[in-house]
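DATA SHEET
Item: assembly model
Revision: 1
Owner: S.N.
Input lines:
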Amino acid sequence: MKAIKCECGHENPYGTEFCAACGKPFKGGDSDQLINMRYEGSAIRSKTYNKTIIDKIWNFFSSVKVGVTIIFIILVAAAIGSIFPQQEYIPSNADPATYYEDRYGIFGKIYYLLGFENLYGSWWFITLLAALGLSIIVASIDRGVPLYKSLKNQRVTRHENFLKGQRLVSITPGSIPFEHIKGALIKNRYKVREENGNILAEKGRFSRWGAYVNHTGLIIFLVGAMLRFFPGMYIDKVVWIKEGETAAIPGTNNEYYLKNNNFILQTYSKNDKQYKAALQKAGEVPKNYESKITLYRAKSKPVIGELPKLEKIKDGQAKVNHPFKFSHYGIYQSYYRQGELDKMKFNLVNKKTGKAYGPMTVDLNNPKTEYDLGHGVEVKLSRYYPNFYFDEKGLPASRNKSPENPAFVFDFKTPETPDGERSLVAIQQTIEANKQQANKYKMKFAGVEMKDVSGLTVKKDLTLPIIIVGAAIFMLGVVQGLYWNHRRIWIRQKDNETWLAAHTNKNWFGFKKEIQKISDETGLIMPVDKVEPKRS
Amino acid sequence: MAGISSTLLYCAFIIYLIATFVFAMSISDKKGREKGAAYIKRWGRIGYTIAIIGFICQLGYFITRWIASGHAPVSNLFEFTTFFGMMMVFAFIIIYAIYKTNVLGVFAMAIALLVIAYASMFPRDISPLIPALQSDWLKIHVTTAALGEGILSISFVAGLIYLILTVDQKVSTAKTKWLEFIMYCLLCIVGFIIVTIISQSIGTKEEFSWKAWKDGQRVEQTITYELPVLIGPPDGKLLTKGGYEPFVHAPSWMKGEEAPKKLNTFIWSLLSGAVLYGLLRLILRKRIAAAIQPKLANMNDDLVDEISYRAVAIGFPVFTLGALIFAMIWAQKAWTRFWGWDPKEVWALITFLFYAAYIHLRLNKGWHGEKSAWLSVIGFLIIAFNLIAVNLVLAGLHSYA
Ligand code: HEM
């Protein structure tokens, strides 16, 4: 396509509406119509080309109509996702297939069938976000580049038709001292350029870049959010550590270990003067959750089931709102379980005489298999069911590894019973292996030890700096674009007349007040706003 | 201290009421039209001063309550909604300083009053903070977000004025109907306040036992109604001796904690709003907007349009900073993730997206004047939804409320 050469000598790309340098409109001649100042009349690619498929895709995404439509679709989708809780917020033991229907009736069922229980992670929602990002990028390049060029190329002397086409124009007869006008403009903090007795006074041009700065920030933010899916950028794991125990921190390749020294739960005192009334209604209100922890680093390679040599790094605490930090990791106090079974004690008791051997202690998380009670008494733990139940076949089984309802199969030998006896011991019940003849001895429960368990979230998120930079740039951009505006005043003196034309990209109210002030100071005639009288 | 605090809030309320009347007088009084601009200007200045005094009073309430409770008083519905009303007044004070329009004073102060009165219907106890809420970021987040919402609300106030001013009232159209609908919604809030005050003063209280969902299970609970019971809980049993059986029971799927009670309150608001609206129509003998319209005759609609837009331009960055960015910082500390798609977060995002769309439609598609005014009304609905419905309805349905 051919460039347009203006009579002032400036070459403008094809599609330009008025000359970037002198402002002469290429269409419309010298009618009194308002000039569209939106992008300084520059050749917006999407408004100029529409031939190839690339043009069409480009134009699609650069269209603000399309962009706003995408924003609205995301908005509606987001709202739908908030009607019922997303799957991650329903109780973890509930089956979503039935939960939504049980809980919310037919609407819940439809919600689940449409897959809305995972709406924000669905492929189509992510696609919408990607489309938004693409649209922002395309629209910004489409308009930003030509806008930058024409604002850079603008010349002080502007074509008469350009001035006439502004929203605010006035022609003051007689000559007004040039320095006088210039002084008034400078006093109002305009940057003044002059050329052949004409003036271009400008302020706040940087605010024109606000949109592009904030869009850049948004894109950086979105990219940061997507980077999370790259391996190594993001770790989000939960580790449960019982008081007094040490565990490897997941995601650190067994480099770091954490010891839970103590879990603390404090509640507000019922007699608290300040909150008495509220506490009477609400009952127990927690005041603080906190795990006192110690961080270690491994000095040797770990052997399965055993702790490596550890070197203490630091003590600290993970408290709600105050995570424990080290290198790129944060340890957060997220969950707790209080009074969890930790150890069980037993005595081996002669049923008749009541003579007892022991006690022996079974560590419910790491049970030993053999126990020597002295006097030639040996107990073997041959089976262990941490969370015991009878399965469909009526056989003992364990639901999982957490010791909520422990059961044990013990084999015990005493000098009296050298062949050994066996029994299954669970809470509140004992089943003996030998049905014909009762055992002489039994394992008698002799107490438990309980511990609190802290559920700590281990978090590493290398995308955070990118997200923060994106958000900061976004904020700068919005403030820059919305709290400032780009004001220009052109003065042209010719044939004993002074022309004043003025344009701002927003906030005409404030601008007109300012021009009124300048006109009061200089004697220039205050222009009549061509847009104003709309209502009859 | 708590006592001083309540008194100050009460004073602020009365002073705002006076300011509203002064602003109303400055535009409607016949003298105004005779004596002209100087009269309007003088009474505008008086109204403005009174509004500022009221604001200082409310600031006093805020500070004393902070001292009394040991934490920033923005932690429950009463405190937050009151603070939102205060931020509306603050936003009005800023915007009036730029544009000096008395009409804005009438509407902004009246709506702020409504918000504060509405807030006072919630329990006002000073309550302790659970650990997740004990963070400086929480107060920074909540106050900035409320300020942003307050400024955006001024956009709604100006938008509403614009619509009352420009929608043609000679014939009944979809526009006049929607405008009346907005008036009706505002009256529903008034209705809710009146019904609640009456019920509180005669001490209505009825208890039912029923099975509600809690933490994924159905458990037997009692539910206490403070308003007369129109809608009872599904298969609820009346516990109060001499109480009245409800007219109807809520549909059986409505089993969220407190859900039937909230529905009951909602129905009461709609009904009382309808009664108020009907009465006003009978007295005025025309549409409410049509009755207000002539009082605004001196207004320049372009100016109102610009105010509405300007409020968005000022409020949008503040809202984004407070409701999204500070919220994310806090969420990162308290819940390990800066974003988790919970309803409150989602509705802050929706508000953000909506005003982003508003800005684009206005700047690029030339949606000025009426279209933009309707958008500002919808924007306020979204904000109000986030303040009220997300807490009372969505979160109430959710088990983690
Ligand atoms: C949620 C996403 C978005 C946000 C928060 C956002 C924010 C903004 C803001 C605040 C402005 C006004 C800036 C100013 O005048 O100073 C703006 C302008 C603009 N936006 Fe966006 N935007 C978003 C998405 C989009 C999309 C999807 C498009 C694509 C069509 C787009 C295209 C534009 C254009 C063309 C302008 C006007 C630039 C100008 O006047 O020079 N934006 N945006």
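QC remark: Confidence is low (pLDDT under 50) at residues 396-401 of chain B.
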